[in-house]
Automatic annotation (TrEMBL):
Pathway: Metabolic intermediate biosynthesis; chorismate biosynthesis; chorismate from D-erythrose 4-phosphate and phosphoenolpyruvate: step 4/7. Residues 11-93 form the Shikimate dehydrogenase substrate binding N-terminal domain. GO terms for biological process: amino acid biosynthetic process; aromatic amino acid family biosynthetic process; chorismate biosynthetic process; shikimate metabolic process. This is Shikimate dehydrogenase (NADP(+)). InterPro entries: Aminoacid_DH-like_N_sf (IPR046346), NAD(P)-bd_dom_sf (IPR036291), P5C_Rdtase_cat_N (IPR028939), SDH_C (IPR041121), Shikimate_DH (IPR011342), Shikimate_DH-bd_N (IPR013708), Shikimate_DH_fam (IPR022893).
């Protein structure tokens, strides 16, 4: 039951109607006995500044940020935490005493999804150089000591830009590669951070199936469908296939912990995400 003491958290994005974050956080608050509610607000880009000011004025305790506001929101915040500043995108904001601080938990979500898989001393290929790719790459480069990070995408200049940034910031060996040239790089771990595999691209693979080798870890950030074409092919080739759901839950768990200071109820959050995706389909965190 909501009361006059109930804290409010929300999602700000456009669109938001397919997001499963309300279900994930509502279940987490219930499981931990936190008196809080979570709503999704569709905010067009032209209203973002007003929305953030309104959130502060209303005393809303925190919010998630999704497409297309992850970069634009930063200029409306009082502070951006170190990793989010380096990544250049914010997906979680905590508001305390009227002060808004931005964080990025996508990288931590990805590391949670990859936990138990050795990344140190291995060649990790990341497909894409957008917001999620940057978060994943920065988290791996800063904490996992990979032998090499290969950034692959259809625009060589953008792939080179991210590879150079990783090298400069973390001293990690990082190289750009075309999507066609990836097979020659022989990655041990392959991470898809492009939307290929989700609707309307469900029949598409971000790389040729020849790149896949037995024993390779293949992690697809796409979580709807739960098994993308890439993951289906990876399983058929004897790879270790990991879907995007664990990252979705992991980034939400990290947000919950930032907001509440309580260990996130991962199992409950995962079940809520699975149920919500089954019922309504999801396309945004
Ligand atoms: P983004 O910032 O828009 O980046 C998209 C990336 O995909 C860019 O590198 C883009 O390259 C590339 N791309 C787009 N269309 C492509 C195509 N047809 N062929 C090849 N490359 C293409 O998006 P994002 O926020 O990083 O999200 C990327 C994916 O990760 C989405 O599917 C999103 O749902 C998923 N994601 C999942 C989670 C999770 O928790 N599981 C969290 C965040 C994101 P160009 O610049 O060349 O177009």
């Amino acid at each position: 039951m909501t009361t006059s003491r109930t804290r409010l958290f929300c999602l700000v994005g456009d669109p938001v109607d397919h997001s499963v974050s309300p279900e994930i956080f509502t279940r987490a608050f219930e499981a931990c006995g936190v008196d809080a509610a979570y709503l999704a607000f569709r905010v067009p880009s032209r209203c973002l500044g007003e929305a953030v000011a309104g959130i502060r004025a209303l005393g809303i305790s925190g919010f998630n940020v999704t497409i297309p506001h992850k970069i634009a929101v930063m200029r409306h915040l009082d502070a951006v935490e170190g990793a989010a500043k380096e990544i250049g995108a914010v997906n979680v904001v905590k508001v305390e005493g009227g002060r808004s601080v931005g964080y990025n938990t996508d990288g931590e979500g990805a590391l949670r999804a990859l936990s138990g898989r050795r990344l140190s001393g291995r060649r990790v290929a990341i497909l894409g150089y957008g917001g999620a790719a940057r978060a994943v790459a920065f988290s791996i480069a800063s904490s996992q000591r990979p032998e090499e990070i290969i950034i692959s995408g259809r625009d060589p200049a953008k792939a080179m830009g991210l590879a150079q940034r990783l090298g400069a910031l973390f001293g990690v060996k990082s190289t750009p590669s075309s999507l066609d040239g990836l097979g020659k790089a022989l990655p041990d771990v392959l991470i898809n951070a492009t939307p290929l595999g989700m609707a309307p691209w469900v029949e598409e693979m971000p790389v040729d199936r020849d790149v896949l080798r037995e024993g390779m870890v293949v992690f697809d950030l796409v979580y709807n469908p739960a098994e993308t074409k890439l993951l289906g092919e990876a399983k058929a080739k004897g790879c270790i296939a990991i879907g995007g759901l664990e990252m979705l839950v992991g980034q939400a768990a990290a947000a919950f912990e930032i907001w509440t200071g309580i260990d996130a109820p991962l199992g409950e959050m995962r079940r809520a995400a699975e149920e919500a995706l089954k019922v309504r389909g999801g396309s945004g965190a």
